[in-house]
């Protein structure tokens, strides 16, 4: 009887392994997308990642209002309230977009902010929404995207930082934070 249980267990294990492999094949693979200038008037630093993500500096109220027409579904603002000069949340929500505020600075960036950013990006991806991520200069948006690429797309840290520099990353503190994150998750 004991051998029968082992055979059933081995068969069950093999079946589970085959099902897991099949589901991995069916699940879409997320890959690193090319970064190119987004070509948005008034936002010369904006970078388009693939077809679905823009990393940018601060858009104007008119630009925020037009994001829905451009096919965006989510705006992620990385600026702290102390930096804000307009009611961005009201403008974005009035346009029918999902508005997410994750206020960060090099001094306040931590694991909670990273987790929230990753969750928001993953959620927008699962809803197949285009995402507009911004801060004041593009520095923080590029840094958070590098962290996403390292964490979810398994891009080597050096490559993610190189790509983030293309998208506006300039802060040595944020580069150090990206490296620390890569070490923390064991990929550096």
Overview of the structural elements:
- The protein is of the alpha/beta class and 188 residues long.
- The protein has helices spanning 2-26, 61-66, 88-94, 111-126, 139-152, 157-166, 172-184; strands at 35-37, 47-49, 53-56, 72-77, 98-101, 130-134.
- Helix 3 links the parallel strand 4 (72-77) and strand 5.
- The radius of gyration is 20 Å and the shape is globular.
Distance between the termini: 49 Å
Mean pLDDT: 85
Strand order across the largest sheet: 1-2-3-6-4-5
Overall strand count: 6
Radius of gyration: 20 Å
Helix/strand/pairing class, anyone?
A: alpha/beta
Determine the strand fraction and express it as a percent band. 5-15%
The helix content is 40-55%
Low-confidence stretches: 4-29
Number of discrete helical segments: 7
Shape: globular
Please write the string of helix (H) and strand (E) elements.
Answer: HEEEHEHEHEHHH
Main β-sheet description: 6 strands, mixed
